[in-house]
Amino acid sequence: MGELMDQLFTVGEPIQDAKAPAGPLQNQWEARRFAAKLINPANRRKLSVIIVGTGLAGASAAATLGEAGYQVKSFCYQDTPRRAHSIAAQGGINAAKDYRNDGDSVQRLFYDTVKGGDYRSRESNVYRLAEVSSAIIDQCVAQGVPFARDYGGLLDTRSFGGVQVSRTFYARGQTGQQLLLGAYQALERQVGAGTVEVHTRHEMLELIVIDGKARGVVVRDLVDGTLETHLADAVVLASGGYGNVYHLSTNAMGCNTTATWRAHRKGALFANPCFTQIHPTCIPASGEHQSKLTLMSESLRNDGRIWVPKKVGDGRDPREIPDAERDYYLERQYPAFGNLVPRDVASRAAKNQCDTGHGVGPGGRGVYLDFADAIARLGRPAIEEKYGNLFDMYHKITDEDPYRAPMRIYPAVHYTMGGLWVDYDLESSIPGLFVIGEANFSDHGANRLGASALMQGLADGYFILPNTINDYLAKNPADAADPSHPEAVKALATVSGRLHRLLAINGTKSVDSFHKELGVIVWEYCGMERNAEGLHHAITLIRSLKDEFWTDVKVTGMNEELNQTLERAGRVADFFELAELMCIDALHRAESCGSHFRTESQTGDGEALRDDNAFAYVAAWEFTGENSPPRLRKENLEYHNVELAQRSYK
Predict the structure, then answer these.
(1) Catalytic residue positions?
(2) Which parts of the chain sit beneath pLDDT 70?
(3) CB contact at 8 A, 66 and 467
(4) H helices within 589-632, ranges in order?
(5) pLDDT 10s digits, 376-386
(6) For residue 320, how many C-alpha atoms fall within 13 Å in the half-sphere facing its CB?
């Protein structure tokens, strides 16, 4: 086994975060902000920043940096920033305001997040996230975000998985949409002021590194195929996660890893790629024809009760199954948290019920999410007010009325905790390349608690990056560079050559068929459960399929036009390389933690069993060449404020 592992990767020098100040966590962020060099307003107008992505992290960063006076270029592949995938986040956004007076605090949000991530996140970053969370709500209220309010007009909150307090602010089931509209308005204000340029329908295909520093990007105009070179003093990636490596996921169809993967190949370390979250509350797949899955918000677990029939193969109408013949298994197994256990715990529990024959619906791949008790207790109007748009969406997709019969749900790929490695300043291992939001790895460890993605994206964009990027820009004055620079010319040629290579293959199989085959492999062997034998097999299958892709994929059309097949081909090619690294990462981490569940490492009652002595570190992977094994760089995790303990929600 050890010999096989040696062939898959090598181990390099450890890496550490040198930016987090010493001293108590409570003082670190203020100390870092004070120590960071400032740039006076007149000089900011002379500096430029490129931001890739216009979701919550990217839009808020562009708006804030533009307002500070920097010259910002913003890129997205959608036809408007408003279509960024942040719009799909439904349930809410966390903040430690303790409006309910139920014992919440910055310290408790910090603790819940570290525990929820199964003690595989960095204390300094997580505490800062909890610390700035309250300011996010104030910012968004000032922008006019229509958060839900109680009868007295105060902001309302609800509970989410993995916590025992009510800290999640929400706007019915469309919180992400409303927050993105707030960030978009701030962004457009800076567009009007002339500090931000937005380039829609442009996809980043290469990072330009000059003298060891990130200085620009090569993008493709998706309408006419023109390749463009853009240079700046720093580059920010806010391009989201890589869940679509599984083909079927809750992500928008266009979500991809290309921006972060191109940066990885240029030297940016990729951290914890095997930490991918499976969300427990998804509408089950209805057949082989589907190209994506639809999420039902985790907020539904506040009032919905999850159950399966006690009798194996019970095919009766759920309304005809009496309460005594139902197994409310989360309430039974985890009495302290019940239906509000974290996502990884709820997902594995649902899978176990289905694997033992208690699943419902086609193929037995589903469990019930039942609102009958909540409707009887609160009345239908109250449920409609809280979840009406979610119920309507479920009804339209399934043609089943959730007010009359239970929803059917099943776990699906949702969020990725892995991403490019960043330090306390959110700077990657390439100087001048900053990474924010889901594109970085920094805050969630091995599992993300619900309603924390929106919190991280806006914290990074509104409050953290604007207070750290100035330190880099002040200390690293850059010489003027233009598209004629040799590194820029080389990057452009690399992109052009890659596109023409894809077009020249002219094989027999479609891009989507390769993507689907890859997704099945990754889901089967690196999905909710992993083991050494399966991961070795997956790596062999991925390499074989990748070779077939580069010899038999059919990419129609040409580059100099709107060519969505070519777009998808480039993204799937990067997914092949990422998928292999995910499996290598999952194979080397011979423990279970959070979303990463190795069947060889579990407690007697089937819970994740960590190995803190061997694996209490961030696995940061270095690209070493096209046909060379990746190099593992470990960042050891030290816990001084949270005691390492077996995670329990019972």
Answers:
(1) 343
(2) 1-6
(3) no
(4) 612-615
(5) 999 999 999 98
(6) 4
